[in-house]
């Protein structure tokens, strides 16, 4: 059973930073890709940043220059460094993993709240 365990969310003031982490486990092989999505109250889940199967990183336009996704392949772990946070970044952030059928494995989510 695939498990994605996220950590690092919390409350921060506007302009501050947070770093999220997510570790995948439960399969004999590493996921083909991993990424971060978020869902704000009353809105649909949206891409934040993700690695493709080819290893490149994709970002949503509003996160470019502020957020950085990185990874430790040996540990099946990804990170999301979030800088210059804005109240609009308040959401539950989810880790996702692709084991062959797209991003169909999800973590439990971690709350990020940015106060103005």
């Amino acid at each position: 059973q695939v498990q994605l365990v996220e950590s690092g969310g919390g409350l921060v003031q506007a302009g501050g930073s947070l770093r999220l982490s997510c570790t995948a486990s439960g399969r004999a092989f590493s996921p083909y890709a991993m990424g971060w999505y978020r869902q704000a109250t009353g809105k649909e889940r949206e891409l934040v940043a993700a690695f493709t199967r080819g290893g490149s990183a994709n970002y949503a336009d509003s996160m470019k220059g502020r957020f950085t996704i990185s990874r430790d392949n040996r540990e099946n772990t990804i990170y999301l460094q979030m800088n210059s946070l804005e109240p609009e970044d308040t959401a539950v952030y989810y880790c996702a993993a692709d084991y062959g059928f797209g991003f169909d494995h999800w973590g439990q989510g971690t709350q990020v709240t940015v106060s103005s």
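The CA atoms of residues 51 and 57 lie 4 Å apart. The mean pLDDT is 96.
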